[in-house]
Write a structure and sequence with these properties.
The longest helix has about 50 residues. The protein is built from 22 helices and no strands. By secondary structure, it is mostly helical. About 80% of the residues lie in helices and about 0% in strands. It starts with a helix and ends with a helix. It is globular.
């Protein structure tokens, strides 16, 4: 017979199950609503207003690294760990000024398609490879983060392996069943749950459990870590490096950029990105303060265990809601990237082949199959990340190079050389390899972001200076797009 204690311990699990059931139900509803429109299933173009655009971009940004990752980083960096979310917000705002409206007006659905028309085919091939590599890395890391959260907060039910598999299964199913429409609408629930869970948990930890006072006391007696400084823990150079990397992600990654296409008009897209950026910031610093309070309340505990232990000490319903909030953060990121990566594979690879042309009328089923395949392959990748985690994280910095290519082509068309795109992306790959395998290079650059910005930026400028053949003008691009239709 199940005791009362066992029942109370199962409340967080019950809340997670109910949350998953609701999201899958929403996915089924959206799938029927789309009426088997293959392109709309992945893109959901022209449907969202400002607020849904905002929660979609905020949901993408607020993932595992933006919540539990910040709380862990606060053990050594204090409040300054929260700048990770500010960097994301900064990138989203830059995208709202430079890329979102231009991409909507380009007539393209994918970043690769845009880049290929601006530069040339070989640049399009390199961009496709970069898009798939970067997005698959992000997806795989979200599976692992989701598995870590479940294993930490429900240790009697999940270990890291079963938690990762369960996260993969649910994240993939939400994207597979409902497509981009489901992901957009589910982020209304995800962001609401994240804010509610984190705020309620913060209030209870800070004031009911004495976390605020304990943090103040620890900060006043610690000479090693500037817990309450907004900048000293991470340092200005690291914060700037974060901003550089995030500008790369927000200005060139398919899973981010295509959110702008879901908006009803330019105003909704631009304002949605800016409002979403504002939504990202408070969660980062709240999670940083939760991490500091956890360390103060449980001296000597490992950073990866402190926050889960604090959350499990809360009343069961609050613990369950907070668990769902942290897991929702992973889901919102993973699902958006699954859709983005599948869009790249679908429109930039499969439907450009002769076989793809034959099955255009089956686009709805094929796009679902692509999500399934991408989901399975990224799960396999996640199972191997234990040995190559650092290498995969470096791959994310390649987005700096792809962002330079996109921004250069769109904003500096009279300067950018046709060959600059190819060489810039190639150098980003070589720079990632150099960071991993060339001895001493990490002693020269404090962060891989600085290395990537220098090498790719210089490459783009130098090649463009010597290349007399410039990228397509706006009129040329429009004519090419019309001719291809």
């Amino acid at each position: 017979m199940q005791g009362k204690g066992d029942y109370i311990m199962n409340i967080p699990l019950i809340i997670v199950i109910l949350y998953v059931a609701f999201l899958l139900g929403l996915g089924i509803f959206m799938s029927k609503k789309e009426k088997k429109d293959g392109e709309n299933f992945l893109l959901y173009k022209g449907k969202n207003g400002t607020w849904i655009t905002a929660v979609t971009i905020a949901g993408l940004a607020i993932g595992g690294a933006s919540t539990i990752g910040i709380a862990q980083n606060a053990f050594v960096a204090g409040l300054s760990a929260g700048w990770y979310n500010v960097a994301w917000a900064f990138g989203a705002i830059i995208a709202s000024f430079l890329v979102v409206k231009r991409f909507r007006h380009s007539g393209h659905n994918t970043v690769t398609g845009l880049v290929q028309d601006l530069f040339d085919k070989k640049t399009g091939v390199m961009m496709t490879i970069a898009m798939i590599l970067i997005q698959c890395t992000i997806i795989a890391l979200q599976y692992i983060a989701g598995g870590s959260i479940l294993a930490s907060l429900l240790p009697d039910i999940f270990n890291i392996n079963t938690g990762t598999f369960f996260s993969f299964l649910i994240f993939m199913l939400v994207a597979f069943v409902g497509g981009m429409g489901s992901v957009s609408l589910s982020n209304i629930i995800n962001i609401s749950l994240i804010y509610f869970g984190i705020i309620v948990a913060s209030i209870m930890v800070f004031f009911n459990q004495g976390g605020w006072d304990a943090a103040m006391q620890m900060a006043s007696t610690s000479a090693d870590v500037p817990y309450l400084s907004f900048t000293d823990g991470m340092g200005i150079p690291a914060i700037i490096a974060w901003m550089v990397v995030m500008c790369g992600n927000t200005n060139s990654i398919q899973g981010v950029i295509q959110i702008g296409l879901t908006s009803k008009d330019d105003k909704s897209a631009v304002n949605g990105f800016r409002l979403g950026a504002l939504m990202m910031i408070p969660i980062g610093f709240l999670c940083a303060m939760l991490g500091i309070s956890s360390k103060a309340l449980i001296p000597g505990v490992d950073a990866t265990l402190a926050l889960p232990m604090i959350i499990l000490s809360l009343p069961p319903v609050i613990a369950g809601l907070t668990l769902s909030a942290l897991w929702a953060a992973d889901m919102s990121t993973a699902c958006s990237m699954l859709i983005g990566c599948s869009t790249t594979v679908s429109q930039d690879i499969f439907f450009k082949t002769s076989m793809g042309q034959k099955y255009k009328d089956k686009a709805f089923a094929i796009n679902k199959a692509i999500i399934l395949i991408v989901g399975i392959l990224t799960y396999i990748l996640s199972s191997q990340l234990g040995s190559i985690l650092n290498a995969m994280k470096v791959c994310l910095s390649m987005a700096i190079g792809t962002s330079i290519v996109v921004l250069g082509g769109l904003c500096l068309s009279k300067f950018a050389g046709k060959n600059a795109g190819f060489w810039t992306i190639l150098v980003s790959v070589l720079s990632a390899g150099a960071w991993l395998f060339v001895p001493g290079i990490q002693n020269v650059f404090s962060d891989v972001g600085y290395l990537m910005l220098l090498t790719t930026g210089v490459t783009f400028i130098v090649v463009s200076l010597f290349d007399k053949n410039k990228v397509s003008s706006k009129n040329d691009l429009t004519q090419q797009k019309i001719a291809s239709n």
